[in-house]
């Protein structure tokens, strides 16, 4: 079991990655499925609006804050190399930073940008929308799994 500042870091890691797992999960099981039931122009417009709001909302603070917490945990753990929990702390950090933050940057955001460029009424948007829903949601499932695994790894550091 970790002690001292590592205890606080592990608890912070559990909280931030657990919250993000919930946010990502809600998108996969509710939001994306709901958008998929709408006609393409409305679904694409709603997703574009969500993506715009996400950049200036609490979501961005949570998302980037979780990445910052995980990065701090990784750096402190790597530099100070605690006797207990180091593998779990480093694994938890890596899982979120690569599997949630990294996937967002390389998989979800480029799809969001393409959807925005296509507009909502074009033939290209109509053709892209089913693929967008499928691929974006698949990558979002990766973010869910990575965030859950990260939180679990931090929990194991506490055990």
What is shown here, in short?
This protein has 159 residues and is mostly helical. The chain contains five helices and no strands.
What does this structure look like?
It is a single chain. The chain is built from five helices and no strands. The chain has one domain. With 159 residues, the protein is mainly alpha-helical. The chain starts with a helix and ends with a helix. The longest helix has 36 residues, at 123-158. Helix content is 87%, strand content 0%. Keywords: Membrane, Transmembrane, Transmembrane helix. The chain crosses the membrane at residues 6-32, 53-83, 89-109. This is DUF1772 domain-containing protein.
The dominant shape is elongated
Number of strands: 0
Structural class: mainly alpha
Query: What's the rounded overall pLDDT mean?
Result: 96
Beta-strand percentage range? under 5%
Head-to-tail CA distance between termini: 5 Å
C-alpha-based Rg, rounded = 18 Å
The main sheet comes to: none
Domain count: the total is: 1
Order of H and E elements: HHHHH
Helix content: over 70%
Give me the number of helical elements. Answer: 5
Low-confidence stretches: none
């Amino acid at each position: 079991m970790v002690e001292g500042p590592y205890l606080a870091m592990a608890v912070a890691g559990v909280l931030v990655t657990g919250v993000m797992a919930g946010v990502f999960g809600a998108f996969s099981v509710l939001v994306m499925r709901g958008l998929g039931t709408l006609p393409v122009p409305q679904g694409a417009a709603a997703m574009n609006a969500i993506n715009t709001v996400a950049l200036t909302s609490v979501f961005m603070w949570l998302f980037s804050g979780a990445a910052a917490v995980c990065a701090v945990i990784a750096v402190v753990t790597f530099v100070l190399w605690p006797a207990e929990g180091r593998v779990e702390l480093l694994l938890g950090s890596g899982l979120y930073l690569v599997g949630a933050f990294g996937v967002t940057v390389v998989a979800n955001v480029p799809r969001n940008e393409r959807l925005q460029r296509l507009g909502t009424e074009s033939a290209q948007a109509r053709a892209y929308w089913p693929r967008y829903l499928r691929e974006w949601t698949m990558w979002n499932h990766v973010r869910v799994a990575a965030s859950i695994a990260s939180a679990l790894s931090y929990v194991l550091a506490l055990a």
